[in-house]
Amino acid sequence: MRIAIVTGASSGLGLEFIKTLINKYKDLQEIWVIARRKERLVQIADKYKDVNIRPVSIDLGKDKSYTELEQILQKEKPEIQILINNAGYERIGYFKDMDMSDIISIINVNIKGITAINRLCLPYMKKGSFGIITGSISCFSPIPNQAVYSASKEYTYYLGKALREELQKEGINILTLCPGNMDTEMNPRGSIKHSPQINMLPFLDMKVVTERALEKAEKGKAVYTPGGFYKFYRICSKIIPSAFMVKITKKFF
């Protein structure tokens, strides 16, 4: 059974990935959609009745969810053609003022969750399959007010690039997607009050982002940073010393 798996599937970029998979990959026999909110997943499955969508309601911030998913995979033994590792958790603010629960959730979802999903799913991927790890432009430089989040995204960036290198001999590609601003439920347009400069940065078209990310992943690309402005930012982060970049990001993020 050839399937795609999408985590963080209940809204935003994850939901857009589902739409693109439905439109572009007709050979998939099932799409497994993973998120905490079961009712959202059921709504998605009901909306796209012509497609075999399987809701898997688990919380990737909790260890028991990894066991639940492992048991499902062992029972079904699917061939995972596409893995969209998109689940994420973001809270922005001064580190010393953040709730400890939010800090732990960022680490659990963005680091533990993404790592666990890759480890659980890779044994079911074969030559020609590919994965996408959703990172962020926040991975390219330390960002005050996003200290934990940007650090977690640097982890996903390095994880994705290292996995890609390990898996090349098996014919499996991993692309790390590093988008900037998107109008999502996690980060709705105009929502960041303490730093209005963020809201002035370009907002990306999620449909275009998902379509191009899938195309580039299938072609074997390593990293995709959508949008001219964010590509420029990525270049700047490579040539400007980190001590200066962190001062720039402090002003604009």
TrEMBL record:
PANTHER family: HYDROXYSTEROID DEHYDROGENASE-LIKE PROTEIN 1 (PTHR43086:SF2), VERY-LONG-CHAIN 3-OXOOACYL-COA REDUCTASE (PTHR43086). It comes from Clostridium neonatale. This is Dehydrogenase. Keywords: Fatty acid biosynthesis, Fatty acid metabolism, Lipid biosynthesis, Lipid metabolism, NADP, Oxidoreductase. It comes from the Bacteria. One of its GO terms (biological process) is fatty acid elongation. InterPro entries: NAD(P)-bd_dom_sf (IPR036291), Sc_DH/Rdtase_CS (IPR020904), SDR_fam (IPR002347). GO terms for molecular function: oxidoreductase activity. Pathway: Lipid metabolism; fatty acid biosynthesis. Belongs to the short-chain dehydrogenases/reductases (SDR) family. SUPFAM superfamilies: NAD(P)-binding Rossmann-fold domains (SSF51735).
